[in-house]
Design goal:
With about 350 residues, the protein is of the alpha/beta class. It folds into 3 domains: about 10-90, no CATH class; about 100-260, P-loop containing nucleotide triphosphate hydrolases (Rossmann fold, 3-Layer(aba) Sandwich); about 270-335. The protein has helices at about 25-40, 45-50, 55-65, 75-90, 100-115, 130-140, 155-170, 175-185, 205-220, 230-240, 240-245, 250-255, 270-275, 285-315, 325-335, and strands at about 120-125, 145-150, 190-195, 225-230, 260. The longest helix has about 35 residues, at about 285-315.
Length: about 350
Amino acid sequence: MDDTININNSDLSRYLDTLPDTDYRQGVKDMLTDLVNHAVTNGWTLRHLAQRINVGPTTMHRLLKGIYTAPAKPHLDKLDDLCGMLALRRANAGRQAYVPTQLGRYIQQVAQLTHVNQYASMLVGKTQWGKTTALEEYVRQHPGTAVMVRCPVTTSPSRVLYRIAATMGVSTSGKVDEVISRVCNALSSEHLLIVDEIHQALECDKMGRKCVEQLREIYDSTKCGLLLVGTPVLADTLHSNVRWRGMLEQTSKRSAAKIFRLPEDIRTEDIRALWTSYGYPDPDRAMLSQLRELANNSGFGLTTKRMQAGLTAARNAGVPVTWDYYLAAEAKLHEMEQGLLQEQV
């Protein structure tokens, strides 16, 4: 039986434990997890989240549980758009200062090479490996000439096109051809167009291929730099899947064969840049080993989140931050990710 007891004000963290077991494809699971994490951080209830896409709490509950019996795609598309909007707000709002790392500088060098030389390139690396954060910083450093959008989990040419148009302040009204024309008029050889999470197009098969083909046409028309960013599955598919390789053949002749791969391991120097930025003391050997393991298993994103939580806890206590606060924050966040409620978080 569907659990709808106290649904309106239910704590959203409980869905984090069940989302991995839903039948959604991985891109949708990741999007919903990001959205729920944001909601939990900001104290939203299920009703608050439901109101943002104009559905009832019961519908939202069933969507997060993966048991919604009516067609879920329209609601999931709205949630994906909401997730993208929130990510953009976080990028532009007051936030922890960007922490330069060797890996981040490499990512920005790829962006610059693509930008200056008008390449159509691909950047591939593991999830949470710092790609998005470094590229957001590149966009901030190149206002007006660098444009970055996130590929929707349900990819179609029109949805990606409208995101590009909206990001550039171009009208999205009218037919698709009219929007394409306005986007191409707004872009020039001075621009870099970055499309993040492009590997999500792979899971949409025909529509995903049409989306990338449309990006190629925009690139051909405007001569702007084009950087497609995704996980290693993107490069693997281009090598192994005949349909994708053939579809991108023309793009490859325009230098899109340039595939930049991020390293498999995160260097200790880059982890040091994080803990120094957050004011932690140098860790002992055991703590450093734990930090390396977390960073290489989960990436910069999770490591940064725990450091932020430990620093916040120490500031609330009015004392200098130590690794004890980091470990306490790690334990608390782990419990929350398991859907466990606590008296104090």
